[in-house]
Fold B box-type domain-containing protein.
Amino acid sequence: MSVYKCYDCNQVLCRDCSRKHDNTEKYSTHLMQLISDSFILNFKFPLEDEIYRQRFIKDIKCLPDGEVVAAVYDLHISELMVFSISGKRRHVIKLGNIPRKIDVIDKYTVSVLMENDNVAIVDIQQTHVQYIRNSAMPNGLGTSFIYIENELYEGYEYGIVVFDMSGNFKRANTLSFKPYDMCYDVDSQHIYCIDRITSKLICIDRDGTTLFKFTNPNMTNLTDLTIDNEGNVLVLCKKEDDLTGYVIKVDFNGEKSEVVISNINTSRFDNPRICYDHLTDSVVIVVCYTVYIYKKKLKCELSFSEK
């Protein structure tokens, strides 16, 4: 019975054939995935430019119009790259410091947390950058970063600091954990946080009150998270033994979960990132300088794969 699909060969394989396939040097770099996954790898492409070639991607976000923006850097330059979901690059915007995290303000504007904890507000259409001096969080302590209704939320060792679009301190929410990464669901007005120390997904409200904590034995080495069209949280994880990546879907109230993407190629030194394209129901994952697009299965495809 077919269990796996090899992206590079475009073939489905039984369990025995997949073991042989995986152990042969000829196929060692091929991407194999369980055909029962809810999202199947559709295509991949390297994020390059004509001068510096391969670029390391610090963060990535999907824009509301179906485009993707990536914060990239190397030894020579730091910038935002804007490209389509099919990989066609539209333009590049130079940045004055190394980008750390990005979040979407609207379909034309993104906010970028820099290494010095200052923030760049970037107009994608006009390729204009406005820098905000962040007086609320000096000394490069920020670990996570999101935008909510004209306020910027930055996670650090002891909680979240909130500041306005001019960089002025508004308030601080003290937490019992360090929010390594955060994402915000507009419909529920919930903030979802990753606590890497305890391998938990923690849901809080905008005042910092904990609504629920979720974990299970399969959820280890949490690296990033995003929200799908149904309000579920997609958590990008790594296995402890071979550091293979996978994605777990947790429902919006933290009551159940399932693995929706398996066997993502990664390594000990990668910091993979994930975002969700709401127009095409696709998961976008970046590992080092390669972008992977996973397309959501149709209901008929899900029924067929379960047979």
Q: What stands out?
A: The chain has two domains: 1-35, 36-305.
